[in-house]
Amino acid sequence: MTGAVDTISYFLKRMFVLLWCSTARRVVKNDHSFLSWGMPKVTDEYREARRDEILEAAMRAFHRKGFQAASMADIIEESGLSAGAIYGHFPSKSDLILTAATRVIGARMDDFDEFVALDPPQPPSALLRVLMGGMLNDLGRPDMLVQLWGEAITDPAIHDLASSVFAQLRSMYASYISLWHQRQHGVEQTAADAIAEEQVGYFMSMAQGYIVQSALLPGFDGERFLTNVEKYLPS
What is the mean pLDDT of residues 129-140? Predict the structure, then answer.
């Protein structure tokens, strides 16, 4: 008799466990169940906000130590997040640098669109002031750009990014120079494009010169430099 009772008890326990597991799986599928409390879904908005938080912390670390000296440990400490939280979004420091640089360039594209829409239109030399001001505002220190160029020498991914950035900026500048000559001087597009191709190198070299001198020369007068660019570069 005892053996029969034990057997029945065993099967009842098995049935209870199976029933509970089946019910639990159904309950977990309900986002409002007690089993899902404290475990909210990770939305795209949340992930993007966390990425922004990490990027801001990385930029603070880069401002303080520079691209080369700042380590992932510095960025983790700056963010106050766990290593897993950082690496879950950015596998390496290069990924952080690439993402930050891409965002800075994206903001310059927005600056360019606003500049093109100005009425009356401004000369191409004035675009340099807009682009340099925006970059320095985002990066905080001009030497960060010089460091980024240095990283591009040894890091293929950053080299590709820097090459892409230069190509975008050059194309952007050339298109505006051509547009300026068409609007202000009545030059037809083919001829204006040819003029832009001749002049764009001067404007690009002024941008690079401004960045290098800002980073390396004590007492560099950036405002005077930009004023002279607007005075002497072709318009």
Answer: 83
What's the CA gap between 95 and 91, in Å, rounded? 7
Q: Which two tokens stand for residue 90?
A: 């950015």
**Domain encompassing residue 212:** 94-232
Q: How far apart are CA 166 and CA 76, in angstroms?
A: 31
Cα–Cα distance for residue pair 163/149, rounded to 1 Å: 10
CA distance linking residue 179 with residue 187, whole number of Å: 9
Alpha-carbon distance of 155 to 16, in angstroms, equals 60
Q: Are residues 107 and 172 in the same domain?
A: yes
Q: Does residue 37 sit within a domain?
A: no
What are the pLDDT digits (tens) for 76-100?
Answer: 999 999 999 999 999 998 889 888 8
- Same-domain check for residues 98 and 212: yes
Does residue 210 share a domain with residue 174? yes
Phi-psi region of 30 (alpha: psi -120 to 50; beta: other; left: phi over 0): beta
Total domains in the fold of the chain = 3
* 154-193 burial code (b ≥16 CB/10 A, e <16): ebeebeebbeebeeebbebbbebbbbbbbeeeebeeeebb
Same domain, 135 and 175: yes
